[in-house]
């Protein structure tokens, strides 16, 4: 698969000459040693893309020609993951994994037992992970939300699932329909979702499911949940 970079003003007209000159371009020149004649992808992060060919490598920019362009439509199911904030290094890892899993929106949650803090670099982490995983749509990373805000989001979703080790309910029993336009997944902190938080989620309409027998780290649970639900909903 072709290397992907993101630009603000995406060239989309076939034959158009474009000056690729942002930080990604400098990375391509200095680290990837991009050479004239190489073909790669440019995207705007919202689904639009262009396949381009480099023909002039400069000190800080690359002149390219647009070969073909297109647009990737979003999937029928929009996936939002509420991720309780783990420690800083784990938080970055969680953002990367959720991005690679194809999540559309990542919502940091200041849970009662969260020990991490929100970082202004989360959006950048999602952008870099999108390039690495060759996804044309960069996930939205929202501001930190409260438990009450999550309850409001649950009410607006078609299916909301909170994962917790206290339940015996299997995930497969929580998904009864493939017609889910807005999916909400809730991942708790390392210390777990408190009984009060869990009761609030259930009252708002969320289902509670067990994620198998092993207890995953908070930063790793999200990608496992997304994979399992995506398969059940036939998104994958």
As laid out across the biggest beta sheet, the strand order is 8-7-6-10-9-11
What's the level 1 CATH class of the largest domain? Alpha Beta
Number of strands: 11
**What percentage of the residues does DSSP assign to strands (E)?**
25-35%
The CATH superfamily of the largest domain turns out to be SPOUT methyltransferase, trefoil knot domain
Question: Could you please say which CATH topology of the largest domain applies here?
Answer: Alpha/beta knot
> How do the helices and strands follow one another from N- to C-terminus?
EEHEEEEHEHEHEHEHEH
Number of domains: 2
For the sheet with most strands, the description reads: 6 strands, parallel
Radius of gyration: 20 Å
Mean pLDDT: 91
Provide the structure class.
alpha/beta
Task: Set out the fold topology.
Elements: E1 4-6, E2 17-20, H1 23-30, E3 39-43, E4 48-57, E5 62-71, E6 78-84, H2 88-101, E7 105-109, H3 122-132, E8 140-141, H4 147-156, E9 159-163, H5 171-174, E10 182-187, H6 195-204, E11 207-209, H7 218-232
Helix pairs in contact: 2-3, 2-7, 4-6
Question: How would you explain this protein's 3D organization?
Answer:
With 236 residues, the protein is of the alpha/beta class. The protein folds into 2 domains: 4-71, Beta Barrel (Ribosomal Protein L25, Chain P), CATH 2.40.240.20; 78-232, 3-Layer(aba) Sandwich (Alpha/beta knot), CATH 3.40.1280. The protein is built from 7 helices and 11 strands. The strands form 2 sheets. A 6-stranded parallel beta sheet has the order 8-7-6-10-9-11, sandwiched between helices. Strands 1-3-4-5-2 form a 5-stranded mixed beta sheet. A hairpin with a 4-residue loop joins strand 4 (48-57) and strand 5 (62-71). Helix 4 packs parallel to helix 6 (195-204). The radius of gyration is 20 Å and the shape is elongated. The two termini are 19 Å apart.
């Amino acid at each position: 698969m072709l290397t992907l970079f993101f630009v603000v003003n995406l060239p989309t007209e076939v034959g158009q000459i474009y000056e690729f000159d942002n930080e990604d371009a400098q990375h391509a020149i200095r680290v990837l040693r991009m050479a004239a004649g190489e073909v790669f992808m440019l995207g705007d992060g919202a689904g639009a893309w262009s396949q381009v060919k480099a023909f002039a490598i400069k000190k800080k920019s690359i002149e390219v020609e647009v070969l073909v362009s297109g647009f990737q439509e979003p999937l029928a199911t929009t996936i939002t993951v509420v991720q309780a904030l783990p420690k800083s290094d784990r938080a970055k890892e969680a953002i990367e994994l959720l991005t690679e899993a194809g999540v559309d929106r990542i919502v940091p949650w200041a849970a009662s037992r969260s020990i991490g803090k929100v970082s202004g670099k989360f959006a950048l982490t999602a952008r870099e992970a999108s390039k690495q995983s060759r996804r044309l749509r960069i996930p939205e990373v929202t501001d930190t939300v409260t438990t009450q805000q999550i309850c409001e989001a649950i009410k607006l979703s078609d299916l909301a699932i909170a994962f917790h080790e206290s339940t015996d309910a299997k995930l497969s029993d929580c998904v009864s329909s493939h017609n889910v336009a807005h999916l909400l997944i809730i991942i708790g902190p390392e210390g777990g979702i408190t009984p009060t938080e869990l009761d609030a989620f259930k009252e708002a309409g969320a289902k509670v499911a067990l994620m198998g027998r092993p207890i995953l780290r908070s930063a790793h649970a999200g990608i496992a949940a997304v994979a399992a639900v995506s398969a059940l909903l036939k998104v994958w």
